[in-house]
Amino acid sequence: MVTKKTKSIPNIKVPMKEKVEAWGMSSFSMSPVFRPETEEEIKELFVWANQTGTKVALRGGGCSYGDASTNTDGIVLDLTRFNKVLDFNLKSGVMTVQSGARIKDLWETGIENGFWPPVVSGTMMPTLGGALSMNIHGKNNFKVGTIGEHIKEFTFLTAKGDILECSPKKNSDLFYSAISGFGMLGCFLTVQIKMKPIYSGKMKIDPVYVRNFDELFAYFEEHYKTADYLVGWIDAFASGKSLGRGQIHKATNLKEGEDPDFPGNCLLERQHLPSRLFYVIPKKWMWILMRPFSFNFGMRMINLAKCIASILVNNKAYYQGHAEYAFLLDYVPNWKFVYKPGSMIQYQVFIPKENAKQAFSEIFTKCQERGIVNYLSVFKKHKPDPFLLTHAVDGFSMAMDFPVTKGNREKLWSLCYELDEIVLKHKGRFYFAKDSTLRKRVMESYFPKENLKKFYSLKKKYDPKGILQTDLYKRVFLS
């Protein structure tokens, strides 16, 4: 690697710039990337950045869809090498890890001992530090809340260089703001997370076909108290009386003693995602086979085919491994390549339960009117959480994948601005981990003023020189 020495601190070498891409591949920055492996290296980089005025973006697994970990005017700290599992107490279920450990590391360490992460995203590749920065949620958010609610404590390097221990009782202001603070106050170092006990390597899955939004919402409201996980897929091309049709997957954990194959079915070799479809076609080829359908009519046909398949398996329960159910985004490696060369963005919104059905109906109808229909829609139920910059509401979310092309980019952003107004009208919120289009005016409209005032005060306290910045922060908070 070609490097050059800085004048401020002789032992810091700045790498040549490399392409740092958003997960959706629709935006990127050209930035020097540091890959520290120790706390001392991270702290040294923070000291150097404060002395030189260099802007720093923290990056974990790079799983945010937009520009949350790119940095056009500064450097990027990639923390994926700071990734050790330090301790796992099998009595308490508390696991201690460095913040660069991935969700993959958590579940692979835990499952053979009868534990599973309490909250996981649709991919196993985010780091725990990144997951806390965005305060991720899962398909069980309505039941257990966000990942931040399962953290016992963490050590935290503030932007100005102090290392603090944080918990709900110790430095609690920082605990509840660093979690959800999208990396703008400092860097998580070590994290203690309470894992969830499981008594089977499989869960019972109930697939249910719903004909419209009425049936979708009715099923969630009727069954969420008896489900461990609930997620809905929606056909965004359907209209009229079929608006909101799709399929729900309800998952229920088996209770202690119900699975005669436990703990054998928790062995890693029985939990990893299969590498071939139907034991024949390599999964890594699947995106190539899907590529010819990556246009409106093709995706309309795929959605229709999925609806027909959903009807055929309606209410036919089956059993599925935890990883198979949880990590849908990892099931087909590189599936996002289907959307190349412009790739995609995700637009995810959270709407209070009393307004959600009307809001989502308006959003889907508006997309159809504009001729820009999303290719994948995922529906979940949520509950509020206590974190400062939370996206959660007592209600529901819809995550919508839109392909980005040279021809539609301007129109797509314009559509998202129109959808913003629908979301604000219905008192909804947005999610920094998925965002590519949010504007400062919209952000200031949905966050409570007291939350923003506190965030800016904490930013000034813990990052007085403003070294921690990302393209998202500059776009949404500084623009």
Automatic annotation (TrEMBL):
It holds the Pfam family FAD_binding_4. Residues 25-198 form the FAD-binding PCMH-type domain. The chain crosses the membrane at residues 174-193. Signal peptide: none annotated. It comes from the Bacteria. The keyword Flavoprotein applies. Keywords: FAD, Flavoprotein, Membrane, Transmembrane, Transmembrane helix. This is FAD-binding oxidoreductase.
